[in-house]
Structure formats: C-alpha cells, structure tokens
Design brief:
This protein has about 325 residues and is α+β, with helices and mostly antiparallel strands. It has two domains: about 230 residues, Rossmann fold; about 100 residues, OB fold (Dihydrolipoamide Acetyltransferase, E2P) (Beta Barrel). It is built from ten helices and 18 strands. It has a six-stranded mixed beta sheet, with helices on both faces. Strands 13-17-14-15-16 form a five-stranded antiparallel beta sheet, with helices on one face. A four-stranded antiparallel beta sheet has the order 2-1-4-5, with helices on one face. β7, α6 and β8 form a beta-alpha-beta unit. The longest helix is centred in the middle third of the chain and has 18 residues. The chain is elongated, with a radius of gyration of 24 Å. The relative contact order is 0.12.
C-alpha cells in the first residue's frame, strides 16, 4: 500500500460539494503538490489529512493505518500555513521547542533537536529573538523548524509563500526542497502558482472544482496535458480549434483542439527548408513583449495569432510588422 491513501473522499459544507470522490495515493519520500485555482478544494483536502476538517464520506490511510477519525494530535503530521502562527510571547527557541515539550521530551534532547532544526533553516544564533524581531522570511523558516523538529510522518505546506516577496520566495523554495531531501520527508504542498509547482514537485495533482483533473510529474503534465484546463494551468500555451489549426497547416485534424507551447515554435526572417515532420508558416509580428530573458512575439498567420517565445538575443530581435517564418514540429502539436 502507498504511504498515504485517500479513498473515495467526499466533503460537503452544507450544500457546497467541495471534494468529489477523491482517490489519491502518495508514496513515501515524495514531494507532492496540489495545484489549482482558489476554491478548487486543495486546502480542504490538506486539512482533512491533518485532521483539521472531518470528511463527509471516505477513508484516509497513513502508513497502512486508518486515520480517518483520529484527532490531529494522534496523526503526527506537521503543517505550515500562509500565516506564520508563531507564539508572539515566546522566543525562537521556545517556539521551536513547544511541540517537544508537549510530548514531555527530555530537556537535553529538546536542546539538541532545536539546534539541529535551526541549522537546517540557517538561523542558528536566533534562539533568543522574538517573532517581532524577525523578517517575514525568517518567521516562515522558524515555522518550518517548529514543524520538522517533532519528526512528523508528513509535512503539509498550505500556500506558505503567499505573503513573501518574489526573491525571498525563490530562496525559501530551494531551502525547503533541500530539507525535504535531506530528511527524506513526505511533503504535500498547496499552491495556485504553476511555476512554483513545477520547480518544487516530484508529482503534481491538478485540481478543479473538487476533482483531480490530472496527475503526473511536472514534465508529463507540461508535455502531455489531458485536457484544456491542465494545458491552460501549466505553462504558457497556444490553444487552437481544430478548424483554425487546419487553416494554419492545411491538414485536417480529428482532435477538437490543438495545444502548442510557444517555446516549441522556431522563428526566422528567412524561409526554413521543407520537411515531412514539421509545418512551415508565414506570418507577421503584431506585438512584442519582453519577459526577462524571454521575448514573446505575437505572430499573425492567416488571421490566427500565435504566441512564440524565444531567448533574448541582442543580435536577433525582430521588428513590429516584420514578415517572419515559423517552424512547427508536428510532434509538438498536442491533440485534445
């Protein structure tokens, strides 16, 4: 049996059907992300696992044990929220040690474990500081240390970076991933940020309206979305109706929609050599936007506009209105 199993999970809030027949298995040691827009049920599923919400129907298993009706304390699950939830009247040391003290662990062991946790989150020497003396990122790292010091069976992270600026967010993403690997934890992460999910996850479960739309590795979901929602939610995309794709390429399609990633389209001012494995299209640039190291060209081909993403290159920047050729490999045209 998998390390964590959700079996036919249903959750209602009065007449609001939040989780709909969720069946999900998670392997020990995986970093798993529940990804979806607000209100899709991802945080509710996490809270059901933690015991903070009671499911309406179904069962939850952890290490083969049915924990469906166990209290949160009996589950030994650590959880980090968007709010840091540190005790303002306790210093860093006592905030981290709190869970161990509740378990009546020996003082020497507590001290050893607190020091280990502080080293893991790179905050050794902060023991005597209080939460008001810490930055938001430091408070979140203390919350992480407090969660891992008790050696939980599972670490749950519910949108932990939402209140943190982009630069610090990237730093914390890397540190949490490193700690996850170092401690061989099983972690479940909730976010609506697809880039964050791609960076951190071993497995992503894309959720919509209380249902899991698709599960897989970041690469699997990015390259082979199973529906429009997954294609739109993971990465950038061109989504074309079958008839529009036929207007572009001259080839009839059996699929109702075609997904093409912008970075898979080549662009050139000169014509490409013809071949059987790709399409050659002629269009004109109608818009240009700079996205850091990426330039996005909007190219009009037969009254259909395609997004084309290329790496920034000072020596190869195309102009608004310029005629360009596009090369589109057939294998990159994903039918849905």
């Amino acid at each position: 049996m998998s390390y964590i199993v959700f079996e036919n999970i249903e959750k209602y809030y009065d007449d609001n059907h939040v989780l709909k027949s969720i069946n999900l298995s998670i392997n020990k040691g995986d970093f798993v992300t529940l990804l979806g827009s607000s209100g899709c049920g991802k945080s509710t599923l996490l809270r059901c696992l933690a015991g903070l919400e009671q499911i309406t129907r179904g069962k939850i298993f952890l290490q083969g044990e049915d924990i469906t009706y166990l209290s949160p304390k009996e589950r030994n699950i650590g959880m980090i929220f968007q709010q840091y939830s540190l005790f303002p009247n306790m210093n860093v040391y006592n905030n981290i040690a709190f869970g161990l003290k509740m378990k009546k662990v020996d003082k020497d062991v507590i001290n050893e474990e607190v020091q280990k946790a502080l080293r893991l989150v790179d905050l050794k020497g902060y023991e005597k500081r209080y939460p008001y003396q810490l930055s938001g990122g430091e408070q979140q790292r203390i919350a992480l240390a407090r969660s891992i010091v008790t050696k939980p069976k599972v670490l749950l992270l519910d949108k932990p970076f939402n209140a943190i600026d982009a630069k610090l967010r990237r730093s914390l993403q890397s540190r949490i991933k490193e700690i996850h690997k170092e401690l061989n934890m099983t972690s479940i992460f909730v976010t609506h940020d697809q880039e964050e999910a791609m960076i951190m996850s071993d497995i992503i479960h894309v959720m919509k309206n209380g249902v899991i739309e698709q599960s897989g590795t970041p690469v699997e979901i990015y390259r082979h979305p199973k529906g429009i929602f997954a294609a739109e939610f993971i990465g950038n995309h061109n989504i074309l109706e079958g008839k529009d794709f036929m207007n572009l390429t001259g080839e009839e399609q059996k699929d109702s929609k075609i997904v093409i990633r912008p970075e898979t389209i080549e662009i050139s001012h000169g014509e490409f050599s013809k071949g059987e494995d790709f399409y050659i299209l002629l269009g004109s640039i109608v818009d240009i936007s700079f996205k850091g190291s990426i330039i996005r060209y909007m190219v009009n081909v037969n009254d259909i506009t395609l997004k084309v993403d290329v790496l920034f290159d000072d020596y190869k920047i195309y102009d608004l209105g310029q005629k360009v050729y596009l090369k589109l490999l057939k294998e990159h045209c994903i039918g849905l």
